[in-house]
């Protein structure tokens, strides 16, 4: 994209409604704009990041054997009356009435709807297990929407639901999803720690939250450095395969034996047993939450299937959420500096910015056009006739992993300067070498 033709409205001033870094930087870098309290429009650069996160989440769900579908945002109240949650959910639910006076709602989550879809079609234990997911907007009328997209009212969530014949199967599905989550967060460039969580009003007895570290997190967390040393993505003998019960078991033991707790569950005696150099603590942001809740919905909504002996069985369920839009803010909280955002390579809106320091200079223009063509949509070309300082500042603010700086002296000799945003490291290279470094 050429900056002169783009809709990336960066701001020089810090908007005063933004109290945390990610919110400030998302507004300043032109990623989002608020349209109503806790409701945001995603502008082109922000949408590219959101889509990149979505892609990684989707790839890992698919790899774990989950199947994607798409459920609507608007739901009929009847389903929620069946499960009993229509009354229980309270003020966070946005209730709507249609022209025929029917009670509708904007879905805050989808357990009821997926259970309804399941019971309409699945009649036999032979069709189990199933893991179904979608990536869809949710609405929760949060009392205090804040921190930009991190606690919005409308937000994008990946929610998956598993159906198994028995408890053992449900535990297996739970472990598969947990592995998919750890792989997802690693690919997003995040250190995520699974913490045992309360099962809350939904009930059940197996639940984990995934917390990433950032100074502005809502809770204090304590964990063993072991979590940071595990490579969840690696294949081979030491790796974890979703389809191997032995691997899933070994993985789950790793996830549950090392110490990890939020302040509410912090256990001083157990913490003291963690060797000093292995102790990590800090503020954390919840980016995902998984739980097993057995037959809560299949029973209340009468979603039985015929078991092996012909008798009806209520499948055991779990649900698994990732805050896709929250992650955009959370990644920035975990990865920024004074000058701006530092995008991990895997989700950056553009892999590189091309900074033309002298628009109108034949050598600079020629080199930049050639780079821009060869980077095929992965680069943002700063072709504005602004001062170099303005371009440097904007590129740092927007956080592209690489900056390719093209000045008249270098260009005359066929050279560009390549800067790595994360380290500030610079090197002067030929065009081919710069492109090779970007690709590698
Ligand atoms: P929280 O405790 O932060 O309110 P929750 O327990 O209500 O989260 P879940 O119902 O488990 O969240 O939803 C799954 C995921 O959706 C959360 O882990 C979080 O990443 C995301 N999420 C929840 N509420 C919001 C929100 N208001 N804005 C953005 N993302 C959200
Ligand atoms: Mg909540």
What's a concise summary of this model?
The protein has 15 helices and 23 strands. With 440 residues, the protein is an alpha+beta fold. The protein has two domains: 3-341, BirA Bifunctional Protein, domain 2 (2-Layer Sandwich), CATH 3.30.930.10; 352-439, Anticodon-binding domain (Rossmann fold, 3-Layer(aba) Sandwich).
Features:
23 strands, binds magnesium ion, Rossmann fold, alpha+beta, single chain
Detailed description of the structure:
The chain has 440 residues and is an alpha+beta fold. The chain has 2 domains: 3-341, 2-Layer Sandwich (BirA Bifunctional Protein, domain 2), CATH 3.30.930; 352-439, Rossmann fold. Helix content is 33%, strand content 28%. The chain contains 15 helices and 23 strands. The strands form 6 sheets. Strands 3, 7, 8, 9, 10, 11, 12, 13 and 16 form a 9-stranded mixed sheet that branches. It has a 5-stranded mixed sheet with strand order 20-19-21-22-23, sandwiched between helices. Strands 4-6-5 form a 3-stranded antiparallel sheet. The chain is globular and about 80 Å long. Bound molecules: adenosine-5'-triphosphate (ATP) and magnesium ion.
